[in-house]
Amino acid sequence: MRIALFQPEIAGNVGAVLRLGACFSVGIDIIEPMGFPWSDKRRKRSAMDYDDKVEVARHADFDAFKACAPGRLVLFTTRGGTRLPEAMFQPNDTLLFGSESAGAADFVHAGADLAVRIPLAAGLRSLNLSVAAGIGLGEALRQTGGWPA
After folding, report:
1. What is the pTM assigned to this prediction?
2. Is residue 149 domain-resident?
3. DSSP states of 99-132 as a string?
4. At 103, phi and psi to the nearest 5?
5. In this structure, what are the phi and psi dihedrals at residue 86, rounded to the nearest 5 degrees?
6. For the stretch 4-41, what's the b/e string if a residue is b when 16 or more beta carbons lie within 10 angstroms of its beta carbon?
7. Residue 119 lies inside a defined structural domain of this protein
8. Domains: count for the chain
9. What Cα–Cα distance (Å) separates residue 64 from each residue in 30, 61, 102?
10. Does any domain span residue 18?
11. What's 49's domain CATH number?
12. Would you say residue 111 has pLDDT above 70?
């Protein structure tokens, strides 16, 4: 299982997702461009000492990412047709999350194998990127028996 971030804009969110990946032995894919310099100190501070304990792959664009992505692409989106409790995950899925301000572009939606929505209280539109990644990854690991021993 992997987590992919499509054009992330906030270093702190990327750092938190890197920490998530390190703690659960899940690789992270970064689909560029990003909204901050990769060497940004805020990202490293957010990931803390976990930054070098996670496998990170950077991709120039979505096509480059898609060409080497293993398994299905499961897009988490507010426009998702499948609610998270009804989604069925597979061990080699890549959980894909859009950028903080714009979400995922239409071509990303078209390239996904499954579009999942995390149900929210009425009138609220979205979760923080790293929070959504944690919720999605937790459910996917639960279903596939992928939690660390």
Report:
1. 0.94
2. no
3. BTTTB--HHHHHH-SEEEE----TT-----HHHH
4. 70, -145
5. -100, -10
6. bbbbbbbbbbbbbbbbbbbebebebbbbbebeeeeebe
7. yes
8. 1
9. 11, 5, 20
10. yes
11. 3.40.1280.10
12. yes
Write down the residue that tokens 């689909």 correspond to. 31
Judge contact between 3 and 17, C-beta under 8 A. yes
Distance (Å, whole) CA 52 – CA 80:
33
* Full residue range of the structural domain in which residue 94 is found: 2-144
Nearest to 144 by CA among 74, 78, 75, 80: 74
Q: Report residue 112 CA to chain centroid gap.
A: 13
Residue 114 lies in a domain: yes
Tens of pLDDT, residues 44-93: 677 777 878 999 999 999 999 999 999 999 999 999 999 999 999 999 99
What's the length of the chain? Answer: 149
Ramachandran assignment for 115, one of left (phi > 0), alpha (psi -120 to 50 degrees), beta (any other):
beta
- Give the DSSP per-residue string, 88-106: ---TT-EEEE-BTTTB--H
Report pLDDT for 129. Answer: 96
